[in-house]
Amino acid sequence: MENLLNNIIKLNKKYTNFGQVASYIPELKNANSEDLGICIIDKDNNIHYAGDYKKKFTIQSVSKTIILAMALMDNDWSYVFSKVGMEPSGDPFNSIMKLETDDTKKPCNPMINAGAIVTTSLIKGTTLKEKEERMLAFFRKIAKNDDIKINQAVYESEKLTGDRNRAMAYLLKNDGVINGDVEEILDLYFKQCSIEVDCVDLARIGLLFANYGIDIETGERVISENVSRMVKTFMVTCGMYDASGEFAIKVGIPAKSGVGGGIMASVPRKMGIGVYGPSLDKKGNSIAGIKILEDLSKQLELSIF
Ligand SMILES: NC(=O)CC[C@H](N)C(=O)O
Predict the structure, then answer these.
(1) In 10 A of CB 224, how many CB atoms?
(2) Are residues 170 and 204 in the same domain?
(3) What range does the domain containing 126 cover?
(4) What is the ipTM of this complex?
(5) CA 90, chain centre distance (Å)
């Protein structure tokens, strides 16, 4: 397995030259565009890795899966889906357009920024501090890593430059889709995106979703079967934004990307995969990361279709 992973990294390294690291969040520009790493944890708890699997990066939009799970655990599902839809948008992750043109005024799905701002607004807690603590505790629990924390520099950079997200959030408040203090909701959203992880953390979380919410080591049910299923389904239909269709054809694994360069993938009943490659394609997905997953899926026959 280690040979296979090392080979896949070697073969696909060249693709890092064809993309660019995200720059619209200034702090993300500091990433090394040539980094590429992978970690796999299978259902028997075997762990395999290659490349820059230990490099830390911010989770960014991969967090949307986890926050969705929390929102579904904290609220009635019908309430959650009265505020956010279940359909792919076909638009870029930060698009604002359909918030105006859709009759419902609710975001198409929880994997685009507008939808994630809604799920973030549904996290329970009496104060912002309590919500942040609950969120961090949940991330630490599902990644089985107590050292997980927020990257303060990225958080501040996002907060300073996140006016597009701010615009969406105010529009959502105006339309009654989110309630409460918009700046507080945004603060929590920027914090969740700035949580620092590595490939091992993403593989571990991916495995939990792959295993329908049961911790393989302890047997504890951490997330319900239905919520795990819903999250994986959103990963298939919307996880790679407006590249989800092509990704389903070529890779065929539920996956979620982030502009920090991470991709978390969940192969049902088999394994969790964490990939890191901060050089992104035009749609904001790790350019070499997708190639790695494509090769891996072919070689290990991982497509769910
Ligand atoms: N695609 C992403 O990873 C986007 C997340 C980023 N924090 C944003 O809100 O723009």
Answers:
(1) 14
(2) no
(3) 61-193
(4) 0.96
(5) 17
